[in-house]
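Quick sanity check, Alanine dehydrogenase:
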Amino acid sequence: MKIGIPKEIKNNENRVALTPAGAKELTKRGHQVFVQQSAGLGSGFSDQQYEQGGAKILPTIQDVYGVGEMILKVKEPIEEEYSLIQEDQLLFTYFHFASYEPLAKAMIQSKAVCLAYETVEKPDRSLPLLVPMSEVAGRMAIQKGANYLEKPLGGRGILLGGVPGTLPAKVLILGGGIVGTHAAWMAAGLGADVTILDVSLPRMRYLADIMPANVKTMMSNEFNIRKLLPTADLVVGAVLIPGAKAPHLITKDMLSLMTEGSVLVDVAVDQGGCIETCKPTTHEDPTYVIDGVLHYCVANMPGAVPYTSTLALTNATLPYALELADKGWKEACKQHQDLELGLNIIHGEVVYKAVADTFGLPHTPVSTFLK
């Protein structure tokens, strides 16, 4: 199979979908890998390293899309890429369709096969291709939140862990999944007073067992959120409903409960955000203030640490990419139900129900295409 690796062109997106080592694994199996010139530089990988891995370097993004039977990416295609996508071409990347209807409609029109990292799902309901970036984003949420609590950046001027004789900052985490867990570990390690809200009692029992004493758990509901917001210095939105838009757990009117200079970090922004006042921002212009509360809503947080993120992502995606390349998408998805669940749009038909429901579009069973 011919595999194309375009350079990511989303604002300040420095990750790349494949490492030179990954290119070597694919070429060893007889596949051809085409990498856009300088695609890996942001992550610390040179064109020469890809060539040593057996890949061919192509000068433009048009060349890569033109030759690739499977396109491996990190982030969803942006508008200037829509016209490059070909009918029947397999796109394997993060899509997060539920957060942006124009993307879904463009991919329907392209008649490509869209296989989304974020909805590949194991029998135990885990999301193996979302986990590595959720781990990065959860840890970064605290790193960024602690930074923006500093007065020169618009925050209250609070040190997350405090010092002897002063109280630490209070961190509220909405969601106890992968993002929430890693955020809690980071915040706890810095000495903050951490509360995780979740709707699953088994999950909260698990978190209570593994977390240090400065992390508490609490049932997630509107009453408890309103109770905790007045004392929260940093709030991390870490809610995920696979393939669907995140619910708004913090509404605009709730901002009036918060102290001026407190910080919101919404990691769920690429699924629409779990904070009503959230809107996607970029690393170039990451924050804005509403009602005195600083919002950090960068939609590609792991792109700021591309070396770590690219290695972590490729570790997870490469086994699936090898299956798709070796067997073709139909046979690979027939044999691996987790891959089948990654299929969102096929030849102009929406096959992932949560995406269809979000936009009121017709839903076609994926089995229609896997006969």
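Posting the structure with no commentary besides this: The chain has a mean pLDDT of 95.
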